[in-house]
Description:
By secondary structure, this protein is mostly beta strands. Helix content is 3%, strand content 43%. The protein is elongated. 31% of the residues are buried.
Amino acid sequence: MTKVYKKTSGNGSLCLYLGRRDFVDHVESVDSVDGVLKIDPSGLNGRKVWVQLACAFRYGREDLDVIGVSFRKDIWIKRIQMYPFEGTKPPNTPMQEALLKKAGDQGHPFTFDIPVHLPCSVSLQPAPEDAGKPCGVDYEVKAYIANEEDNIDEKVEKKDTCRLIIRKIQYAPAELAAGPKADINKQFITADKPIHMEVSMEKELYYHGDPIPIKVKVNNETSKVVKKIKINIFQITDVVIYAADKYHKCVLNEEFGDQINANSTFEKEYSVTPLLVNNKEKRGLALDGRLKDEDTNLASSTLLIPDMDKQMQGVVVSYKIKVILMMGGGLLGSLTSSDVTAELPLVLMSPKPADLTSTSNRFYSQ
């Protein structure tokens, strides 16, 4: 085992051990969170110990919480009493066996099963002047000492807790959907014949940072001239946890000076790459969940089981590509000009590491 993630409580009585912080959602199943909690009973003073895993949506800065309004909403929470232990212990995983060697005789294994309907870790990009933790969905493993499991009147001291942030992530599936295609016919009032545009991609899914080739074919049977071609990529973030908010953010806007004359045909493949580095100033842009200040990327597209309740997802991310023919005006100038637009769906994800195997190859984007 190359790395152990460890966090000790302020009083030294508890120590959390995890062998990884990324847990994979395979769409139809999710990796179990298997860790070890080291407990020193001498500092408990008759109290008990719990460990919990919580999925929460953070929608405000904690330092603004001055009127008792909670800026953190728990989507799902599960607790296990660790000391004195209650219930039956499942067999230890290989990861827990390795962690128990680190923790010693006071180590106690725990396992959480994350439901498939919960959202993946995602954060909404703060403005440059914003401070504190960003809005978004996060997962936290927390161990604490208390008299009762969940008593709102009992104040659990910070020194009696230790916590580790983990991530629920999805990787690109092995089996890819066919590439999308859009056909647009547009008839202008001032023209006898239409303009036809066909836009297509070889596949629907591309990895973060990879160029996206887009084929554009145009048959311009009108007397109008296409002045230039514009390609936009939009990120659509559906925040359904606290309101039916949808955010459309343009993450790529490129113009190409290709002119298509009247009564002519045109065919070309364009290559575009949406990158977070070009969108650092956009507040509210969805990003893949990050741990501390490490680099991240634009949020991956959300993959859903068919008929899954989107309300339970908290945040649903999707992308679309717009290809726009910027038309020049006819004899009447801009009064008769009208752009021609075609849209394609896009799935952006990270490739699955070679050492991971998926339980499912089929995927459904939303």
